[in-house]
Amino acid sequence: MDTTAETTSDSFTSYCGATVRRAIDLIGGKWTMLILWELLDREHRYAELQRRVAGISQKVLSSELKSLVSAGLVEREVTPTVPPQVTYRITAEGRSLDDVFAAIDRWGHRHR
Amino acid sequence: MDTTAETTSDSFTSYCGATVRRAIDLIGGKWTMLILWELLDREHRYAELQRRVAGISQKVLSSELKSLVSAGLVEREVTPTVPPQVTYRITAEGRSLDDVFAAIDRWGHRHR
């Protein structure tokens, strides 16, 4: 292996490796990304979200939403109707993931 | 619900939703992303990869690598030493994920 490339590569890892790993811990995961993708489109009620993220269990959806709310990427609004209506929407912080999903979309179109 | 918004939202989803969902299915898992991230840096032998992707089990690493090779994102090279040495490296197709990880890195730096 070319030594120059190796050195560059190591600097590359120490420069942004930790940040990327932390970001992947937060937003990586198939279900997390699919939920974020739906909420980047528009706000959803819990049941809509479960329908749109096909195949997700209620347990996983609830737990994922709790994590996303706690990370400040999604907000949860309860309307005091009977029964109460719970709506989830992306926060400004979550909205800033637009670039990531745009890159995934571009990649997806190239990789067919 | 506003019908116009719903239509726009549905067009948006049908326009890029399927592509993004397929891409997330392929590359969205936490372990998948962490492995790709390491291989975007440089090629690795199996044991190095297991050490670098902290916490991954041998079973999951093997299965993830198999999927990535079968998707054409990673290639596997066996050097016929004793014992044989197995090296994994990103393909050109996998290398095109650079943009996705760059977007994650930028997002990670903003979201602290």
From TrEMBL, chains A, B:
InterPro entries: ArsR-like_HTH, HTH_HxlR, WH-like_DNA-bd_sf, WH_DNA-bd_sf
Gene3D superfamilies in the record: Winged helix-like DNA-binding domain superfamily/Winged helix DNA-binding domain
GO molecular function, a single term: DNA binding
Family matches, as Pfam families: HxlR
Keywords, comma-separated and alphabetical: DNA-binding, Transcription, Transcription regulation
Keyword Nucleotide-binding assigned: no
Domain HTH hxlR-type: 16-112
Coiled-coil boundaries: none
This protein's name: DNA-binding transcriptional regulator, HxlR family
Organism whose genome encodes this protein: Brevibacterium sandarakinum
